[in-house]
Design brief:
The protein is α/β, with parallel strands linked by helices. It has one domain: TIM Barrel. It is 41% helix and 13% strand.
Length: 372
Amino acid sequence: MPPHGNFLPDFPARVRRPVLLKEDEAAARDRIDAFWAGSSLGRPCIRIVIDRPGFQNPSWSGLRLDGRQAEESPEWQAHRATELRGKEYMAEAFPYIFPEYGSLITLVADLVGAGHKFEHGGAWIQPMRNALDQSIPNFDPDHPVIALLGRHIDAMATALGDDGIVGPPPLLDGLTTLSEMISQEELCLAMVERPDDVQRLAAGMDELGCAAYEYFYRKLVALGYGDTSSWLQALAGGRMEAVQCDFSVMLSPTMFEQMVVPLLIRSTGYFDYSLYHLDGTRQMRFLDSLSRIPRLNGIQWNPEPHEASIYKWLPALKEIRHRGLILHIDCNTDEAIALTRELGPDGLLPCLRDIKTADEGYQAIERIAAAV
């Protein structure tokens, strides 16, 4: 994995520019730091974002764009950044944005030459049937996709300035990327018949993704940023990513331990902070393996829509915290209160989806704090 921590010797103590759209920034950062440490400052870390009353975002003045045109337009990306000004960021929420590209899943596939297409309202990785016989290219800062995303970051930073935070584009793990390139069925067969090639390619794609991340991260630090959040809502004072393997829902716990855990150990060894995107409750069968990954901070709970009830899964969520993993979870206020009562406030980040006004937000914070 690329080197990271020593390129800025004073990184942990660097002076951050104030984030102008964030009130009580210092207190919010203290609570976020406590969350990442598996602790709390009297109540859970909470995320609430609401529309700013009376604020009218400037409308997009450019031409109507399809998916491909939007992801290739620095002007559109800059417009997205300005839309952060139309929100209020309560509790531990921060105004944060990154370049929107390839539905957040195609960056690594594009760098290895697969490319992507748009259909059904999103971007999809193109098939690359001979991928198992390919080699992974070295990271090239002059690659057209890297250059494009660099222009997006420059445009977004110019448009947003100190009002919010610009971060690097998110990554999709190498094994899931490979499953999209050759199909899930073919990858299942290859894991039995060609396990060395699967590991080589998945690890190589993860390393390529991290090299791209590091390139963008250093660019962002030079622009005065450096906090990241990926597509999740937990701001971190360094390199943070949602590590994942959506393909693993096809695997047994033994195969997960053999084929996925080594990849996750390498990835989490690069990032300063990481949460595993538990894509579906069926991945709870991997909890033993996940809890033994040394640098994995915690779990982002992402149940199937028909399994969304927090109350049904309280024992499982309690078990996640019992294993020492912090918990990032979308829920409503009543569910957050139940979580706080059952799990305690430490290492817990409920992202509230039912708050519409500041008064509702303050009341929700008080009710959750009273549940401790």
